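Notes to self, DYN3 protein:
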Amino acid sequence: LLLIFLTEYAEFLHSKGKKFTDFDEVRQEIEVETDRVTGMNKGISSVPINLRIYSPHVLSLTLIDLPGITKVPVGDQPPDIEQQIRDMIMQFISRENCLILAVTPANTDLANSDALKLAKEVDPQGLRTIGVITKLDLMDEGTDAREVLENKLLPLRRGYIGVVNRSQKDIDGKKDIKAALLAERKFFLSHPSYRHMADRMGTPYLQKVLNQQLTNHIRDTLPAFRSKLQSQLLSIEHEVEVYKNFRPEDPTRKTKALLQMVQQFSVDFEKRIEGSGDQVDTLELSGGAKINRIFHERFPFELVKMEFNEKELRREISYAIKNIHGIRQVLPCLFTPDMAFEAIVKKQIVKLKGPCLKSVDLVMQELINTVKKCTKKLATYPRLCEETERIVAGYIREREEKTKDQV
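result:
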């Protein structure tokens, strides 16, 4: 058992049971799996490759290696490659329980860092962001990243950590990790700009910081997690007590369960519209927030887009006033005649019909999307889920037709 523990090996989720002890084979397997999922010509995919490393020399951390932002598509990459990669990154870094390692090369302008920009969007207070500066050994002679690493240039709450990784030449030359770590340590100790903070630089220190953050996170969240578990346990015990004398053949039980599920659907739907739900979507607007946006942003925007010719409108008003008077002489007056005013206003109001109908369609579509999200909790009972969605969606469609008639 001791020998097994001391042996370093890796396992892939897509090839369960197969242990890799040669890490050159691990790299090859990653390349093969990447080509299998994305193709042979630089394609992309949001499907992760899951790799687990077993070793006495590593920390118990889950690391997610995300791609850098690609500005120009190459090979088989889609035209909107930049947006796709951005959406993929946001999917992971938006989670409140993850730390963000904003990796930026030292030989580029920190103000243009895509990593720091994305981290700022989801973590404006900097509570989860750690800056990592790489390629310190590749900076032009006479330059350094001292102000960045001292957290003076673009300050982060958790600061910056500098690392020196193996170059492609080192990797091709089979330079092992231990030698790379020694070279990294020597670099920081010997460099005049970094030697005073060498104890706070390097890969081992980054590992230490991550481990400490994990420990702090567990310590901070454990009491709330324990309380939540106890609450759920009490709730389950209460349900067990209620169903202790449950008889499957009792029709009143089935009716009660059905009513409870329908009532829960009603509550979920109402909460999603009013915005008081327990599950908050952090990726996009939905439910009541999206409907509010349709009325207060989209509808005014559609009105602004309407073509309006003031000169033509004045001419129409003039014709309307003259036509109202007929053969009588048109005398200057302070107010527009009622009939002329009504004729002009009616013609302008008709132009509002298009934007109104479009807004109705958008609101109804969002209501139906909300219904579908609420019925997901009924997925255990497909027939009930289908019927609930059909009935509610049908009612919404009926209200849509009435609303359009009123418009």
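- The first helix runs from residue 2 to 6.
- The CA atoms of residues 365 and 396 lie 9 Å apart.
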